[in-house]
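Exercise 3.2. Students should predict the tertiary structure of the chain below and write it as structure tokens, then compare their answer with the key that follows.

Predict this chain's 3D structure.
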Amino acid sequence: MTTERTPQQIADLAREHMFANDRAARGLGMEVTEVSPGKATVTMTVRENMLNGHDICHGGLITTLADTAFAYACNSYNELTVASGFSVDLMAPGREGDVLTARSFEVSKAGRTGVYDCDITNQRNERIAVFRGRSYTIKGKPVFTA
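Answer key:
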């Protein structure tokens, strides 16, 4: 007997399967706090070893946080999806101890391509960066099976 899964159950299973293998996110202390079809929220606390020479969070790590939220959002349909490109604008520094939150959401999904936006804020809800990702879905490849 086959049990039909809801879109939310599919998104939750995709998150579970991805995070089990996501060594980068786990290594940076990221938490995937929310996922739903086409959306994801990921948090990361800025640690001392994430600071650059100006004692602020390295912009590449802020980008990595946003890229991670983007990945969970666009893979939430259980279709293996990768980034085909992205842009990021940094607006304010992240500082040691800040809890950064990246909220990604689907703007457009047509065929095998998609566009996702992501806002990155700190614990005071101050905008740190904005990110736009472009995705490409691999035909016939699920994130998880069974």
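Discussion points: Strands lie at 31-36, 39-45, 81-90, 99-110, 113-121, 127-137. The longest helix spans residues 59-74.
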